[in-house]
Amino acid sequence: MLKVKIENKENGSKFHKDAHLDTKLSDFRKELEETDEINDKLSFSQKFDDDFAVEISRVNEDDFMLKDFMEEFTEGSNEIDMFLVTTTYWKFLNKLNQLDRGWMITSEGIERANKQALILHSAKIVEVNAVNAEKQVTVSYKYEKDMKRFYITDKNVPNFAGRSKKNGKSASPSKYTVKYTVYEKARFEIDKLKASVAFIEEVKNAIEDGKIEKFEKITEKYGQFIPTKIILGGLIENDEKQLKYCRYWDCIEFQEQKSVFHFVDAGLRKKIYSIFGKKILYSLITIEKDDSVNDENIDDNYKVNKIKLPSEVSNIISNNADCSIFATAVGMNYCYHCQILTSPGKEPELMVHCLEERSDDTEILIRWIVIGYDTYLKPNIKFESMKLKVLRKDYMPYDECNHKMFELLDSSDYYCVGIPVVDKKDSLIGHCFSNDYKELNTFAYSLREKRCERLPKFSFNVLAIPKKDTTLTEQIKLFEKDMNDSIITVGKYCDNEFNELNLKKFPKFISICLNKSEQILLKQRLAQIKVKFLGENSQRDFKCLFLIPFESDDDLTTETLDTLKNYYVNSHGKS
To answer: Which residues pair with 337 in a beta bridge?
Structure first.
């Protein structure tokens, strides 16, 4: 037996413990934990002389026995001196839980990557206040059999929440779910991650090749994302004493996920995202109050409603500067016109003009989509051809012009929808497309005077959608019809994939394409669309495009349908 004399440098206490020479340091720690003489904040250390001390990392405790700390092992020597010193233990937690590994979203759930793309250089541990440590979580039934690890994705990152497919089919959540009460112990916060040399080389090769399949193979090997904050803890049913020690903790929540490609240098990132192309990053429908609280009147009759971005949309654009917001609004009784309102140093807002002199709608439906680079390579779409374009056109007034035509794409292989971006609330910019979507025609309109007026400074974002993209049906429902009447009954234009009921109940992005430049106002209701031609001798032949975007087919059966149901119930109840 060996007598180990220990001094705790944190509180000055001294004690001794008997142990066998061949006892591993990790096992010796467990013996001290039984009597609460050590905790996770303390590491073993030995002082060899007055100026030189060695701290043994938690990561290496399995590699040492107590006899390794005897200066000169002889049969008569049976004492060693050791110290307990305050230390950080993030390296131990990282090795135990592989927290610097990437992760994949699959139809089976969240899976850890096989290979390591990133190297963790620093992290910190933030202890959770015991008062707020308990929380309830719901996990799918399949995790009940193996509760060694269970996970909650961060709902603030819609790229991951409930979105996964395998072999082209939707991954439906398990019908069996179980609620657990967990105990949060600490938050693991990653400070510095660097891409490994091997990972960077594979990324460079994929960029040179230029094919998206190469990047898919990289994510299959290294994962799609890595959480930079991880909540650690365990089930409340576990031995509470065990949860005092970090080796018994599990990962119970991921926060602030980042793409594994985020950690390569900016030059490589830019090349990667240009290959990925732009896609629909997020889509949702909200119900907004149409009352006088937030309205700003243009005059006694017409008003502008400024609507703050939904938190989900705000979160996406704050983390990705190259995102574009598109929105459309519809009321139960009246018609609306949407524009993005920008102000220096402030977050954009949605500006909604009511096109009627008076509105009796108390609530309006807003359809939002965010278009940007798919930095996570989501697994729920095919990558090869699903590439959207966002064209931005800027206008600076230089004369008394009240209309402006912009040339778009040379090819007629794209459908287009658009939204104005203005910096003044009283500017209404109307538009339509012409020449098979090769041209954008814009004009300024005064609701008060009921006539066109001088164009102000503005920008215009155009979403260009490939016509021949067979993968579009997974994210976008498209209907283009030839018209010769200014009133369009929505239910007449359906196909087998999307029935009349669905087409009527969703707010739609409507795009009008004429043979020549015209000035029109588009008045959309759920079941009917009216095209108001402002010119006296306007033609009446045009193409009307209905666009209903979804992030996945699951959107038709979950929160979106609940939102719509509440809207219809409330609207009919007030009418």
So the answer is: 353
Cβ 105 vs Cβ 160: under 8 Å: yes
**Could you give the CA distance from residue 532 to residue 487 in angstroms, rounded to a whole number?**
9
Q: Which residues contact 30 (CB under 8 A, 6 or more apart)?
A: none
Are residues 317 and 323 in contact, defined by beta-carbon separation less than 8 angstroms? yes
* Radius of gyration (C-alpha) of the chain in whole angstroms: 31
DSSP assignment letter at 535: S
Burial class (CB in 10 A: 0-12, 13-18, 19+), 215: buried
Secondary structure of residue 183 in the 3-state scheme? strand
pLDDT-derived band at 575 (thresholds 50, 70, 90) equals very low
Are the beta carbons of 110 and 78 closer than 8 angstroms? no
User: What CA–CA distances, in Å, run from 532 to 83, 89, 298?
Assistant: 84, 68, 21
| Mean pLDDT score, 399-428 | 89
Q: Between β-strands 177-195 and 134-140, what pairing exists: parallel, antiparallel or unpaired?
A: antiparallel
pLDDT of 324: 93
Instruction: Name the phi and psi angles at 144, rounded to 5.
Output: -65, -35
Helix (H/G/I), strand (E/B), else coil: 569: helix
Strands (E), 270-357: 278-289, 295-297, 303-308, 324-331, 336-341, 349-354
Helix/strand/coil for 514: strand
User: Tens of pLDDT along 38-95?
Assistant: 877 778 887 655 555 667 777 778 888 888 777 644 455 678 888 777 666 788 788 8
**pLDDT, position 501:** 52
Quick check: 69 and 81 in contact, CB under 8 A?
no
> What is the tens place of the pLDDT at every residue in 470-507?
666 555 666 666 666 777 776 665 554 455 555 566 78
Mean pLDDT is highest, among 6-15, 25-34, 139-148, 527-536, for: 25-34
Residues 226, 103 contacting (CB under 8 angstroms): yes
Round to whole Å and give the CA distance between 282 and 272: 20
Other beta carbons within 10 angstroms of residue 84's beta carbon come to 21
User: Could you give all domains of the chain from N- to C-terminal order, each with its CATH number?
Assistant: 2-87 (3.10.20.90), 92-265 (no CATH), 389-552 (no CATH)
HSE, CB side, 13 Å, CA atoms: give it for residue 273. 23
| CA gap 413, 262 in Å, rounded | 32
- Report d(CA 120, CA 194) in Å as an integer: 7
Centroid of chain to Cα 433:
32
Per DSSP, helices labelled H in 401-488 are none
Give Cα 98 to chain centroid, integer Å.
23
With H, G, I as helix, E, B as strand and everything else as coil, classify residue 62.
Answer: helix
Q: Which residue blocks in 72-143 are alpha helix, DSSP H?
A: 90-97
